[in-house]
Amino acid sequence: MHGRLKVKTTAEQQEAKRKEREKKLALYKAATGKIFAKRERNELDQEMLDLTSELLSVNQDFYTLWNIRRDIFQAWLTSKTPEELQKAFSNELYFLEQCLQMQPKSYGTWHQRCWVMTKMPEPSWDRELRLCSRFLDVDERNFHCWDYRRFVVHHFGVSSENELEFATTKISSNFSNFSSWHYRSKLLPLVYPDESQPTGVKEEILQKEFELVQNAFFTDPSDQSAWFYHKWLLGKAQKDIAILHVFVDCKHSRILVSFTKPIQLGKDCFITVMLDDEKVDAQWTSTSGCSGVLWMSVLNVDLMKNDEREHSIELCLCGTTENVSQTSSLLPLKPNIDYCYWVKSHVPGTLFSREFTSATSDILSQEIDSCRQLHELEPDNKWVILTLLSLMRALEPARYLTEVVTYLDKLVALDPMRTNYYLDLRSKFLMEDAIESHSSDAQRSFCITGKQLTVAYHLEHLAGMVDVDMSHNALFHMKSGHLLQSIRKLKLNDNRLRTCDGIERLLQLEELDLSNNDIQDVQDLAPLASCTNLQRLALVGNPLTNVEGCQERVLQLLPSVIHILL
């Protein structure tokens, strides 16, 4: 045994490590206790600063200590000379840089650096810009550093053009740098502004961006960064709040108004109603509460005009906020006609998309061709397929509908974990095309059956329909059903509904078919109690029909129902 090196056993090593941890913990607790004791005595001095430095050197996420350090510097602002402050803040920046080298993604450290730079008598913004570049060379996706760079750029007055060049350099060195792509999307509207474009960027610049991002696709098709940037380039315009539809039920003196996006009517945004050039008082309520996409009002005047005079009703949307489009709709009230409607004018095929110039359309067509080529090379790449879908829906939704549905079916097979997302997306596209191709609101009926819809999208467009058939689909819910405010007959048979949530407050609903769904209990029909004119209800093929006393319980819950089919 003599002359041999003694090796510690595993148990001995663990015990040694345990003792070392306990020793460090004891020192940590002692230092923490001393700091809080000094804080209690308001001793904001150099010793306190040194104590917090010791602890923050090993734990940069101890946010209270950063607050204490700010308290110390705040006290020094009134007690030290500018030269002393400059030196103290310079030392703090050096300490912060050491902390960032150990933990470059520490929220507290970056926040402290921002604070110091705003309090320092003579801050060197140029040095901070170089520091950002150095840290981004090490980790180009460090979003903390990107945020700090934007802070520095703002205070240093760096031009957006220079920053765009910096972002371009970063992208050129690595197409996978998502932070650079994101930064680019923020800079382009500043360097090449054009408010007429949805992205806020000049059209000719956007066309060049499509070429840039296409190079990234073919370099690394599986990387997500460029695909997300491409989605931003295709992004839909931020819609202003405007009137989308107006439905006037003359018989009941009721007006329904749907908007391009949810709205809250009040003092900042309101609707005026003029009947034959005379203002009419109107109290508006939303089907969704205080904010919604559909609003209605029952007027205290008779809208059924039986004389030979020409009558009209005009609605004007007014608002003081920037995103409210001053729109008005004028509807003629014809003798003995109990219904009239108005639809916001739009180019056919652009109700759910936007109109492109011929130059941009050509670019998008080329993008589709390029993505098709890439799809042939990478048939199982979901990003290629998703981008193809976006391009097709943006350019000509109706033309590419069949192909889009085929691609969505393929995505379900390729990416089964997101099956429900793809099925909902498919439902959205099918609903949009059905509404777009709907011949006329005057028809007042809408049918979309056997399409395997999982969600009923855009029902605000159907607020004036009296007969809607959405049977033989795969609907799990009708949460937006309350938007069907003119509905009299609603067919939802052969779906997968488990409750009637959303099918509520439909005061004109008379007939409802819920046959062959998955409604388990009579109480799941409770929302229908608010449909006070409901007379005929079909429940055949639902599990609740097997419940003893089902019919009696349904009639008790829904007293307006005269005929029930079980």
Structure notes:
The protein is α/β, with parallel strands linked by helices and 566 residues long. Helix content is 44%, strand content 13%. The chain contains 16 helices and 15 strands. The strands form 3 sheets. It has a 6-stranded parallel sheet with strand order 10-11-12-13-14-15, with no helix packed on it. A 5-stranded antiparallel sheet has the order 5-6-2-1-9, with no helix packed on it. A hairpin with a 2-residue loop joins strand 3 (269-275) and strand 4 (278-280). The longest helix has 31 residues, at 10-40. It is elongated.
Key descriptive features of the protein:
single chain; 566 residues; alpha/beta; 6-stranded parallel sheet; 16 helices; elongated
Q: Sheet bearing the most strands, described? A: 6 strands, parallel
Q: What structural class is derived from the secondary structure elements?
A: alpha/beta
Q: Tally of extended strands? A: 15
**Helicity, in percent?**
40-55%
| Global shape | elongated
Low-confidence stretches: none
Task: Please give the count of helices.
Answer: 16
Indicate the radius of gyration in whole angstroms: 33 Å
Strands of the widest sheet, in order across it, are 10-11-12-13-14-15
Topology:
Layout: H1 10-40, H2 46-56, H3 63-76, H4 82-102, H5 107-119, H6 125-138, H7 143-156, H8 160-173, H9 178-191, H10 203-219, H11 224-233, E1 243-249, E2 254-263, E3 269-275, E4 278-280, E5 285-286, E6 292-298, E7 311-319, E8 327-333, E9 339-343, H12 358-377, H13 382-395, H14 401-414, H15 419-437, E10 445-447, E11 467-469, E12 489-491, E13 511-513, E14 536-538, H16 550-557, E15 563-565
Parallel strand pairs: 10-11, 11-12, 12-13, 13-14, 14-15
Antiparallel strand pairs: 1-2, 1-9, 2-6, 3-4, 3-7, 5-6, 7-8
